[in-house]
Design brief:
Helix 8 runs antiparallel to helix 9 (293-309). The protein has helices at 2-13, 93-104, 129-145, 151-164, 173-180, 220-239, 252-258, 265-289, 293-309, 316-326, 354-369; strands at residues 20-29, 41-42, 44-57, 62-67, 76-79, 113-119, 185-190, 195-200, 206-216, 331-337, 342-350, 374-378, 385-386. By secondary structure, it is an alpha+beta fold. A hairpin with an 8-residue loop joins strand 4 (62-67) and strand 5. It has a domain at 2-201: Ribosomal Protein S5, domain 2, CATH 3.30.230.
Length: 387
């Protein structure tokens, strides 16, 4: 891959002397969805697919980008002096947003660079290609300009850029999972404190299978921001009767005893998901530590039901994928993963049942939707690196 990128860099830019190549992974979240901006726990892992970049520093303020995934766009040229928060709609808004975030936080970016990008995360899959691109850019800036930042700080800068440059009000999970990934481990992260521990993903005779619905409904960004706002309002209402900082502070009993403080039935549903999903995530990590994969799978299924009914971020296509998966004996658990309204499901499938899963889920889904899904068995990988 490294040689391929360096060769393509030379073809596009005319010279590949001194080019460096970097990688940052995508992620899949096993459980703990829409809890990361509600002060709860999440349980993602980095993948072996992600975003690559070949990059070479310039001696002026010009930035040039070329994506092997969008070759028709050609070389996109801009400069360090042309940063337009919330008014930048090309793929280059992600690296430019990170550059902008670094400068906003007082780090000096003295010169531009030429960058060639290649991603092997399926487009629109919900496996965090944007966070992968942000972390990748942060690691490149750190290395290229000798900036003293940790991987955790790079994750926070990526989140800051996506919130304030791209206008997507995301939590910290995606960037953190990409920046802090560890091979064969998931990350049990308390998003309120950023305390975390690595938990070995030991599935014995099973594997993680991601199914891409091949749909991404356009309301995902606006609906995501709406859900966050609904949770923030519900939290303010609960604070009138409880001494809490986040929805993640609540037990089920505390929530149910004080739910009448929330004055809108929709907000009750949103807050219930945030509280119960956080508890499910804590229970899931404890089950995994005990090797109780069946309980882990049941909690995944409960998570999907809550995301479908209380948080209302699923969609017909995703629900079909989960329903068809759960008809197969060798499927331990299945749920939507990512922001919602399309994207992917994540399933735990016994190895002996993977071929049956691929065949039956794909056939049933295509019959019902007319769409051929993409199904991949994924591996848990490391965080970002210079190749």
């Amino acid at each position: 891959m490294k040689n391929k990128l360096i060769e393509e860099f030379g073809r596009v830019y005319g010279n590949n002397n001194g080019v460096e190549v970097y990688f940052a992974p995508g992620r899949v979240n096993l459980i703990g969805e829409h809890t990361d901006y509600n002060g709860g726990h999440v349980f993602p892992c980095a993948l072996t697919v992600g975003t690559y970049a070949a990059v070479k520093k310039r001696d002026d303020r010009v930035l040039r980008f070329y994506s092997m995934n969008f070759p028709d766009s050609g070389v996109v040229e801009t400069s360090l002096d042309d940063m337009r928060p919330k008014n930048d709609d090309s793929y280059t808004a992600y690296p430019k947003g990170v550059i902008w975030a670094f400068t906003e936080k007082g780090y000096d970016i003295p010169s531009g660079f030429d960058m060639l990008i290649y991603g092997d995360i399926p487009n629109g899959s919900g496996l965090s290609s944007s966070a992968s691109f942000e972390v990748l850019t942060g690691v490149i800036l750190r290395d290229m300009f000798g900036i003293n930042v940790t991987n955790t700080e790079i994750a926070l800068l990526g989140q800051y850029s996506e919130n304030n440059y791209n206008g997507m009000n995301c939590g910290i999970m995606d960037q953190f999972a990409s920046a802090m990934g560890k091979k064969d481990n998931a990350i049990f992260l308390d998003t309120a404190t950023l305390n975390f521990e690595y938990a070995p993903v030991k599935l014995e005779n099973a594997s993680i299978v991601v199914t891409n619905s091949k749909v991404k409904h356009s309301l995902v960004d606006s609906a995501y921001n709406t859900r966050r706002s609904e949770c923030e309002t519900a939290l303010m209402e609960l604070k009138t009767v409880l001494d809490i900082k986040t929805l993640g502070d609540l037990s089920k009993e505390e929530f149910e005893a004080n739910v009448s403080a929330i004055k809108d039935p929709v907000r009750v549903k949103r807050a219930r998901h945030a509280v119960y999903e956080n508890i499910r995530t804590v229970d899931a990590i404890n089950a995994l530590k005990k090797g109780d994969i069946n309980t882990f799978g049941k909690l995944m299924i409960d998570s999907h039901t809550s995301l479908r009914d209380d948080y209302e971020v699923s969609c017909e296509e995703i629900d079909i994928l989960v329903e068809e998966a759960l008809k197969i004996d060798g499927v331990i658990g299945s749920r939507i993963t990512g922001g919602g309204f399309g994207g992917c499901t994540v399933s735990i499938v016994l190895n002996d049942s993977i071929e049956e899963f691929k065949d039956k889920v794909s056939r049933a889904y295509t019959e019902k939707t007319g769409i051929v899904p993409e199904i991949y068995v994924v591996s848990v990988g490391d965080g970002p690196s210079k190749l």
